[in-house]
Amino acid sequence: MSHATQGGIVYVIPAYPPLASQPFVVNEMLEVQRSGRPLLIVPLYRGPRDTVQHGTYAALRPARVLPPAMVDAASLALAVVAVLGWPVRVLRTLAGLHAAAGWNPWAHARLLAVTPKALASAWRLRAAGVTHVHAHFANTTADCAAVLAGALGIPFSFTGHAYDIYSTAPRLRNETLRWKVRHAARVIAVSEFGAALLRGLLPPEAADRVRTAYVGIPLEVFQSAPLPERDEPLRLLCVARWCEKKGLDTLLDACALLRDRGVAFELRLFGDGPLRPALQSQWERLGLGSCVVLGASVPQEVVARELRECHLFVMPCRRDATGDMDGIPTVFMEALATGRPVVSCGVSGVPELVRDGETGLLVPPNDAPAFADAVARLSGDRGLLRRLGACGRALVEEQHDQRRCAHRVLALVDDRGTRC
Question: What is the number of structural domains in the chain?
Fold first, then answer.
């Protein structure tokens, strides 16, 4: 048994190196690392090294990172050994998950794809002295955690975020979610909205197993800053993955309305994703070149600088055609931590942070005129901008401090079954 990993916690995450779009996962693992608890990482696949890397990622020093390949000859061989070594535990877990997958072929395919990885990881960790497995995201990573922990005979838990619990399209639907919620030692949601959905999968007497632990951000990176001098134009900022649930087409339509109404503004829109060609075409069709700048993905440190230089953060979140929607966007926490109000829509857990009239303004989704009205209102009221920003900073300090949030996750994992 390795003394370096004795009592360690295994984190199952989508990729290593970690994805640029998931700083919240790294933030939490950094705090686990700082707590002195040995951190071991099981990634589902190898993350790209040529994408944006946030500066905070350099501080991640896990005690061990298992091979990132989803499947290879060595993993297949070790998986067979694991089945032979722990046949009852392995087959019981796999039977339960596949039964839960029902008639959905995509769910079975995902299980079949991740099973060799999970079993090989269990065999590699059999003498490491780990005591718990935790997964970020409730779908394939949690499937992996369940099989890994089941093989080792130790408890597992997972954190549900957004698409992994909200998507309803058969190809994306998390068919094994109910089984995992009922068999996990602890289930964590990043919003009260998400927690309520997950509790609905449990009998009332077990509902306390699901708890909320908000995502945290590094407050030393995102510090409160005074608003820029209100010279024209109003500076708007949006940083997002360019996908349907972010509502960026609504944002561009609202910008066209603001321009036509004579509101002086500039929007800087950073990110990338599958909708880049469509958004580029919309930007050209609306003639927004003079007031909307389309940029690429940027690291946390650049986001922090851009937030200091803007007056207002804007992103009209929505539920997309697959049922997916945001949990609480991490960038909203970063904006409010800087003292910048947020204009968005009241979907999912967003109102738990962007409180209408208190830390920002909320409008209905897919409503460009209402969104333009909210931005125009703040454009003409600098006092309201300051008040909303100050309240936002206070709420983030209370609710989204990285250290406090990560310690809550650890407490929930360690004290499963007790109130925290």
Answer: 2
Q: Tell whether 265 and 369 lie within a shared domain.
A: yes
Specify whether 238 is located in the same domain as 344: yes
Instruction: Judge if 91 and 238 occupy the same domain.
Output: no
Specify if 263 maps to a domain.
yes
pLDDT 10s digits, 257-287: 999 999 999 999 999 999 999 999 999 999 9
pTM of the model: 0.91
Q: Cα–Cα distance between 49 and 63 in angstroms, integer?
A: 21
Judge whether 312 and 385 are in contact, CB under 8 Å: yes
> What band does 418 get if pLDDT is binned at 50, 70 and 90?
very low
For the segment 293-306, the average pLDDT, to the nearest whole number, is: 93
Q: Is 397 exposed, middle or buried (0-12, 13-18, 19+ CB in 10 A)?
A: middle
